[in-house]
Amino acid sequence: MEASVQHLAIDCRDNFRLAASVYSPSLTLKAAVLIGPATGIKRQFYHHFTNFLAEQGYGVLTFDNRGIGESIHGDLNHGEASLKCWGEKDMSAALSALQGHFPDVNYHLVGHSAGGQLVGLMDNCQEISSLFNVACSSGQLRNMKPSYKYKAHFFMNMYIPTSNLLFGHVKSQWVGMGEPLPKLVGKQWRDWCNGEGYVKTAFGKDVTNHWYDELSIPAMWVNAVDDDIANNTNVDDMTSVFTKMTAERLELDPADHQLDEIGHMKFFSRKADKLWQITTDWLEKHSHTN
């Protein structure tokens, strides 16, 4: 039942190389899944969840966005990584790599936060059969509860620009916000969370081509009552950007599952593995051999 894991490099259209891992099931292949990582989160964070999917018969690919983890080449300060190119170039290339490893099946995206937000920037997103998004919202600062809003405003509007100015990138790791972030990633993250609809803030500006108003595939959006970022209002704000998509919604309460917390990150924790069946139930429902 144990999945085999292969580590590889993915070449993007601009010849940037991404570090990735492919999980191949020993069972008959049901479908293939791309894991879209959250901002500043390395692919290893999803290992146990990904291995679980593979044990259930799904081929899976995880990857590090450029400027993150093993997808850093040279000085972090000199790269051109941005949220925009994560969606346009990195996620598109990762999906193509998944298709190459697991041909002739349906393809699904499990997006965590930014990994679901950026799907409409992928020029091949129409080749995805369904979305399963976790803690995915616009992250709009004004919609956060006061107890968290001040912390979020400090990080976005003071810490990010100051860190970029002093160090040439965002020292996110110093405040428990994942890996160090490339300068343009931090800048766009700040700009988009201060606006409405996250990436919609950049439509007609930095973002000139997108497919948010064309995607109509089945989609499940899962968030938790104790998530300070992806609260219901911000999930509504993000789903509204997908004008043709009917978004199914599921709000999780950790108490209902005998968990201390779920929040923004813990859905993928081994302690929360009882929740993972929700994902496979969705995939089973929307997977069939082409």
Describe the model.
Strand 1 and strand 2 form a beta hairpin. The model has no long low-confidence stretch (mean pLDDT 96). It contains 7 helices and 10 strands. The protein has helices spanning 47-55, 83-101, 114-117, 146-167, 183-194, 232-239, 276-286; strands at residues 4-11, 17-24, 31-36, 58-63, 107-112, 130-134, 169-170, 181-182, 219-224, 247-252. Helix 4 (146-167) packs antiparallel against helix 5 (183-194). With 290 residues, the chain is α/β, with parallel strands linked by helices. The strands form 2 sheets. The protein has an 8-stranded mixed beta sheet, with helices on both faces. A two-stranded antiparallel sheet has the order 7-8.
Keywords:
290 residues, alpha/beta, eight-stranded mixed beta sheet
Query: Between the first and last Cα atoms, what is the distance in angstroms?
Result: 24 Å
- What would you call the structural class? alpha/beta
Number of helices: 7
The whole-angstrom Rg is: 18 Å
SSE arrangement, N to C? EEEHEHEHEHEEHEHEH
The strand count comes to 10
Q: Low-confidence parts lasting 5 or more residues at pLDDT below 50?
A: none
Q: How helical, in percent, are the residues? A: 25-40%
Share of residues in strands: 15-25%
Query: Which geometry do the CA atoms define?
Result: globular
Please state the average pLDDT score: 96
Widest sheet: strand ordering: 1-2-4-3-5-6-9-10
Largest β sheet strand count, sense and barrel closure: 8 strands, mixed
Summarize, please:
The protein is of the alpha/beta class. The chain is built from seven helices and ten strands. The strands form two sheets. Strands 1-2-4-3-5-6-9-10 form an eight-stranded mixed β-sheet, with helices on both faces.
